[in-house]
Amino acid sequence: MKNTRRLLDIMARLRDPKTGCPWDVQQDFASLVPYTLEEAYEVADAIERGDFGDLRDELGDLLLQVAFHARVAEERGLFDFEDVAEAISEKLIRRHPHVFADVRFESDEERLHFWEHSKLAERREKTGEEAKGALSGVAASLPALVRAQKLQKRAARHGFDWNEIRPVFDKVMEELDETKAALDSGNKQHIEEEIGDLLFVVVNLARHLKVDAESALRASNRKFIRRFRHIEERLAAHGRAMADGSPEELDGLWEEAKRIVG
After folding, report:
1. What phi, psi does 77 have (nearest 5°)?
2. What was the pLDDT predicted at 129?
């Protein structure tokens, strides 16, 4: 654990009001949030690219964020890094009695039910209040696609779901038709609402197909970048820019990009 201790000592020096780094000293919980989120996504990106050397580095960057938040908390007398490690260790043991105690689950469904019940009990203990509903506790700060999927999973565990996938496809088409109708109305607020409904039901379709919507969209983003760059390079080879291409030419280059770069 010497490297963990070293990291915490480095963080303490960086935060020293007299001899530390001015930027690090100025940070607080709120200012660190964008960096924490960014590092989490860079971890995901390294995994999806299969770059495990980069994954090691990105996990280090994410660990730095944990150490940073813990240091800010320690300075305020709230908690420290050891408290964070203790809390997650206790939580893991509590939520896995089939590993750390003599409990047996007869099925994955029974295990999942225990997991959800444990989380509910923890929220009740933390807030001192009963949960306001089955969907309480799904963080509002999550990316919209991730939160939609979590909300849908939570609702499904309480019986609010389709039993087969065909009605989900029908619902996608229904929402698409409603989006088209909203476009004809010219009401921007109505259009935005219908687009939201369409995205929500597409996430539901992904869930029924056992596809993570956030990961799928990230993969599509990378694919779009590859194809777009191919078109840029093809046009640049003739001294032209994207704006110089006709819709027909760009469509042809797009089809070419699909064949060549995937």
Report:
1. 75, 25
2. 54
Per-residue b or e along 156-192, where b marks 16 or more CB atoms closer than 10 Å to that residue's CB: eeeeeeeeeeeebeebeeebeebbeebeeeeeeeebe
Cα–Cα dist 55/52, whole Å: 5
Spatial contact of 70 and 12, defined as CB atoms under 8 Å apart: no
Residue ranges of domains in the chain: 2-95, 215-260
- The structure's pTM equals 0.68
pLDDT of residue 70: 98
Angle (deg, nearest 10), helices 52-75 and 29-49: 160
CB 154 within 8 A of CB 135: yes
Alpha-carbon dihedral 61, 67, 72, 75, rounded to 10 degrees: -150
2-95, CATH topology level? Helix Hairpins (1.10.287)
Q: Mean pLDDT across the stretch 223-244? A: 93
Q: What residues contact 153, with CB distance under 8 A and at least 6 apart?
A: 207
Handedness of CA 118, 124, 127, 132 (dihedral sign): positive
